[in-house]
Amino acid sequence: MIRKPMYIDGSWQPARSGAQREIINPFDGSIIAQVAEGAREDAIDAIAAARRAFDSGPWPGTPAVERARLLFRLADLVDREKEDLARLESLDTGKTVIESRWDMDDIAGIFRYFAGLADKDGGEVIASPHPDTSSRLVREPVGVCGQISPWNYPLLQASWKMAPALAAGCTIVIKPSEITPLTTIRITELAEEAGFPPGVVNTVLGPGAEVGAELSENHAVDLISFTGGIATGKTIMRAAAGNVKKVALELGGKNPNIVFDDADLDLAVDHALNGVFFHAGQICSAGARVMVQAGIHDRFVKALTARMQRIVLGSGFADGVQMGPLISAEHLAKVAGYVTIAREEGARLVLGGDRPDDPALQNGFFYLPTLFTGCTNDMRIVQEEVFGPVISVERFDSEEEAVARANSTVYGLSAGFWTRDPDRMARVSRALRFGTVWINDFNVYFVQAPWGGYRQSGLGRELGRMGLDEYTEVKHIYQNHAPQPLGWFGK
Ligand SMILES: NC(=O)c1ccc[n+]([C@@H]2O[C@H](COP(=O)([O-])OP(=O)(O)OC[C@H]3O[C@@H](n4cnc5c(N)ncnc54)[C@H](O)[C@@H]3O)[C@@H](O)[C@H]2O)c1
Ligand SMILES: C[N+](C)(C)CC=O
What we know:
Keywords: NAD, Oxidoreductase
Bound molecules: nicotinamide-adenine-dinucleotide, betaine aldehyde
Protein name: Betaine-aldehyde dehydrogenase
Pathway: Amine and polyamine biosynthesis; betaine biosynthesis via choline pathway; betaine from betaine aldehyde: step 1/1
Radius of gyration: 24 Å
Enzyme class: oxidoreductase
Strand content: 15-25%
InterPro entries: Ald_DH/histidinol_DH, Ald_DH_C, Ald_DH_CS_CYS, Ald_DH_CS_GLU, Ald_DH_N, Aldehyde_DH_dom, BADH
């Protein structure tokens, strides 16, 4: 059994209360680890350590090349530990180990990308309107950053926050999801090995309503970066108002995947599967809302159904398995609840809609790949984030109708569409109001491109140059090289 404490001010320690939490394997419900279960008092200790490391420690003033060196070193350690990290992630989340290996490659690349950016900003000279003066802009670290991450991509989402914050010269207190903390603890061990000074990286474990709430409310925190659900994001925004801390939010999505009549049907079906069934649909950018133009609708549904029937469920560690379990019994109940709602609303269940009957999967939180057709814009299955292996298919006639319907959602994270018509590519990509739009692809993200949502899918951007800028303040420095008396108030 794995047993892990928290990391505060450069030392590994239990929760002040001594409390512990059991971490559950979603594949079979077994207990895989016991970790410290922190509370507000532990978060307060960590924030104080991060504050000291920022205000009087060497980190913000450390030359950017040295910060970069540590981040490059951390990337190398992620590479060294890739297989163990991937297996730990799969144990904790249930996702296939192949997906976890891709995540680890991404994560090493993220630390390298932000290490590379750390020393590239020499400031900017701007044109002063006054003679004998100079004006320049410099970017400085925001300060102490609270970082709260979700359970679905535990280490990937943590690295999107840790890497730019540390590159910018901030100090951090990170709180992973209480149900999937293991890889965040492991990367904290690697950060210690890489040589980050005490207090720069602090990892506090525990429930959102305690540890996360403290990070959001505490006046010694300058920025709170959160990835998770919309309801929690709204709570955090309200909590952050107390000291007007900066807020960065990466929230949920209900992402339309639009297939036009002229699309390559086989390709569109293939990507529709990946768009939803990777990680059992527990992806913010899952293309669970599939919209198909009338001319190919029936052929598309037939091909999709045939492919979905062949999806192999099982342990993420077993050869040939394509889809693992949902994260928890609670989440399984939520997904099943949406299926009931969809049936009551009149959607037609074509496939799935139940748990698998394979005896080997009964102790895990598995749900069958599920397909609904005959869905309409007003249904909850179409408008709300199910976060499971459930596709709703809507039929549409015109491009205008598809775009208008796709945009009629509170979410705005990502969207994709399939067509061979270059004019339509230009028109539709402009008309869709989402943070990322894919043309003839789906669910593609990489560190060079910013990621974030329109509307209620979030605030700000992670990744790319913008992802670093989130962790900086801009200072204007103005110098008068030949100051003269103004004389306004006499001599
Ligand atoms: N936009 C993105 O890039 C992105 C990426 C991954 C996940 N997500 C979203 O995350 C959600 C799934 O993750 P989840 O179920 O872990 O989300 P969640 O909102 O329940 O929890 C996310 C984190 O917030 C913490 N938290 C809970 N209550 C809190 C509070 N009152 N104050 C502060 N922190 C609190 C949790 O402990 C956890 O660490 C989905 O909606 C998904 O779309 C978005
Ligand atoms: C942002 N992403 C796609 C890596 C994970 C979303 O849940």
